[in-house]
Inverse folding.
């Protein structure tokens, strides 16, 4: 927790001169979008992902141009930035993150305005700093959605077997028929026994499921893709 707090303090210094214009780039240039996500403001938004895998995910999102996105697990905000850039120009994005989670994760309040600034054109970004497993959080998500159904759900929050299963059970009912569910960290991680997403992925992956995997064969990460 102390380490995480020190990192957030460092980020506050790095972002003291933050200017939304700094990331205005051609959304059709995926590499430019990824460069900012991974390297902008001295890695202040860097996703905990393989760049190759996130690039493939970005291409997938851009090809479907979702109008409604729900992300579970905001962290530094890099993946949220990429999703916003690749989504429909009038998309609504909801990102849920637990303050003070495992390892002190969860962005501080001062960063919310910066994360909301990732919205482009006529987009809107809604940030819920809450436990994704609580009924009240699901209720808030439903209230924001109104009568909309989710086009794209990205699950990257609680990585325990019970946690990822709970997220799946609570939020997949919000997805429209034909919508997409993605799960991060489906590759077995030999360095961290607490990451059990691979166990749950093996239960839900069907004949239409696919996997985005770094060609380097990294012993972690991996993104599972399911079509509802």
């Amino acid at each position: 927790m102390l380490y995480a707090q020190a990192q957030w303090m460092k980020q506050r210094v790095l972002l003291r001169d933050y200017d939304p214009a700094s990331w205005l780039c051609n959304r059709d240039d995926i590499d430019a979008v990824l460069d900012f996500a991974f390297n902008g403001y001295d890695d202040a938004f860097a996703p905990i992902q393989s760049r190759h895998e996130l690039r493939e995910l970005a291409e997938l999102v851009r090809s479907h141009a979702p109008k409604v996105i729900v992300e579970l697990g905001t962290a530094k905000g890099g993946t949220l930035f990429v999703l916003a850039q690749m989504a429909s120009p009038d998309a609504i994005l909801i990102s849920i993150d637990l303050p003070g989670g495992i390892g002190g994760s969860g962005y501080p309040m001062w960063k919310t305005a910066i994360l909301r600034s990732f919205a482009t054109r006529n987009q809107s970004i809604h940030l819920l700093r809450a436990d994704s497993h609580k009924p009240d959080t699901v209720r808030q998500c439903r209230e924001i959605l109104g009568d909309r159904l989710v086009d794209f759900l990205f699950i990257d929050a609680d990585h325990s077997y019970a946690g990822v299963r709970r997220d799946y059970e609570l939020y997949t009912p919000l997805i429209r028929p034909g919508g997409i569910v993605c799960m991060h960290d489906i590759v077995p991680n030999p360095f961290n026994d607490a990451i059990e997403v691979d166990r749950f992925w093996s239960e839900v992956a069907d004949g239409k499921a696919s996997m985005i995997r770094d060609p380097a064969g990294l012993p972690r990460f991996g993104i599972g893709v399911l079509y509802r």
Notes: The longest strand covers residues 175-184.
